[in-house]
């Protein structure tokens, strides 16, 4: 009859194990979901809000030029124009990182200095305007290299949005599924 009294701790142990297993399972699912969400967001192909115009580069530019049957001279000129614009835009990336770090530093203060935040915001906005102007100028320069039919074909391809061209925005991304 000591057996009945010795079963009580065993039953109590097992009854506590079920809720603990359920909790651990739920915790595992939550952690796995968080990891999956982080991985998915890291591979997002759409540009960041306010990213402005994007220069076609690399495989995307080659594909667009292939589609419009650009001559070797047109290809070389387009690549030179976009390479020069890209080099100009890359120079400002260090300043962009510094401004983001400064903004984070300002927001982490016990008292936020509104004037300092506005100064950094204005600098960021001015730089974005300059980037947009440089990108637009590169597109205008390439438009002088291509004929009207070629420009129309490229504009039609780009008007479909980034979904069709998603594989070209991230170098290691899998090709986007096409419903053609």
Taken in chain order, the helices and strands follow as HHHHHH
In round numbers, the mean pLDDT is 75
Work out the count of structural domains.
2
Number of strands: 0
Query: Biggest β-sheet, characterized?
Result: none
Topology, please?
Layout: H1 2-42, H2 58-67, H3 72-90, H4 93-108, H5 114-145, H6 148-159
Helix pairs in contact: 3-5, 4-5
Descriptive tags:
single chain; 180 residues; mainly alpha; 6 helices; 0% strand; flat; disordered C terminus
Describe this structure in words.
The chain has 6 helices and no strands. 72% of the residues lie in helices and 0% in strands. The model is unreliable at 44-50 and 164-180 (pLDDT under 50). The chain has 2 domains: 1-42; 58-168. By secondary structure, it is an all-alpha fold.
Compact description:
The chain is mainly α.
């Amino acid at each position: 009859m000591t057996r009945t009294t010795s079963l009580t701790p065993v039953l109590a142990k097992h009854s506590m194990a079920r809720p603990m297993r359920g909790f651990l399972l739920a915790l595992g699912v939550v952690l796995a979901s968080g990891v999956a969400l982080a991985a998915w967001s890291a591979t997002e192909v759409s540009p960041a809000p306010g990213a402005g115009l994007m220069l076609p580069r690399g495989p995307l530019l080659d594909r667009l030029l292939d589609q419009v049957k650009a001559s070797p001279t047109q290809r070389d000129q387009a690549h030179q124009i976009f390479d020069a614009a890209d080099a100009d835009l890359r120079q400002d990336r260090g300043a962009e990182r510094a401004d983001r770090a400064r903004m984070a530093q300002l927001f982490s203060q016990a008292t936020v200095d509104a004037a300092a935040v506005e100064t950094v915001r204005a600098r960021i906005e001015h730089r974005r305007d300059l980037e947009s102007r440089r990108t637009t100028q590169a597109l205008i320069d390439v438009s002088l290299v291509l004929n009207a039919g070629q420009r129309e074909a490229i504009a039609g391809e780009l008007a479909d949005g980034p979904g069709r061209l998603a594989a070209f925005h991230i170098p290691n991304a899998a090709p986007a599924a096409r419903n053609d």
